[in-house]
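Before we proceed, please read the two lines closing this message. Let me know whether the structure tokens fit the sequence:

…
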Amino acid sequence: MEAPQTLHSNDTSKTTFWQDISVSTVTAGFVAVTIGYTSSAAIIFQAAAAAGASTAQISSWLWALGIGMGITSLGLSLRYRMPLLTAWSTPGAAFLATNLPGIPIEEAIGAFLFSALLMTLCGVTGLFERLMRYIPSAIAAALLAGILLRFGLALFSEMENQWLLPLTMLAAWVAGRRLWPTLAVPGVLLTGIVVAIWQGQLNVQGVPLTPTVPVFTAPAFSLTTLISIGIPLFVITMATQNLPGVAVLRAAGYRPNSSPLISWTGATTLLLAPFGGYALNMAAISAAVCMGPDAHANPHRRYTAGVAAGVFYIVMGMFGATVTGVFNALPTTLVMALAGIALLGTLSSGLASAFEKSEHRDAAIVTFLLTGSGISLLGIGGAFWGLVAGLIVLRFNRNR
């Protein structure tokens, strides 16, 4: 693999890791991990439950994802001297949560392996950037928005049964976006926990504090599941996660060759998929925390924030059962509201990008509505058909 191009690598070669690391970079790594878990761990929990996973298997999913993100973030950052954080595919988890019910978990694991194989091949062969050219950003954004639509709607539908908790959390999010944007979602979680305790809805008894034991699930392969789950998961992860992740790196002044990064995340997913590691990709939002001047004034030393984040991810992964136990102790309304609020920013950005250009709006609206409808045709979920229909409309309009 060709190594990514580093930012003035000669400067970083003059110092060692222990000279580069600082309190600020360790803090940035911790904040990035905290944001990553509090913003979307609830969605991972829902995705695993939708696959029919047992409590032990759900813990194994969190173990695999934590270990995978930790090893790749630590290894890539240390190897290439850039803050290269990885993450689980949050839109991918949202897609799985709404499309896995009724599919045997063994077939779901097979689809994860298929998606990971496609990602690895894209990285190894250098097809990543060329393949994404065939999927306009407007279609990818509409696909993402359609997947997240039901999570946003669920936030407000929960208010019909219990209005105080989700409404208070929403108010905390609005205030947080104004006053402390990078900590808005952790603030929402803290607010929800406080209200749940006040209402007597939180029961933390029996939460395990022991390391997680990973659970291996043998994959099974079904052509229908590979098409309806594996291909959309691959497209969603590549178009809505890896592309923004690489873009964030470049915006911060780093110029990586993306092919090796995609190869490593895909290969790691291949190894961890049987344990629940459904999709790893380059991080965008959490990575941005480690790329700014608050992490370190010297951009050549910010890679240590990525290393610190990797260590924290590994610790979180080792205690995946504890994370699962905590979310089991939370009321369902809190988890649903947290997932919906955490995705509001991504949903709004997706909608804005999807309809930004007038020539793409017809295709984008078809993709968005067909994906968001949640329908299944010929046993294949709406996300796949939304993508296909959007590309057909786009091609028809161009020919016209």
About this structure: The longest strand covers residues 86-88.
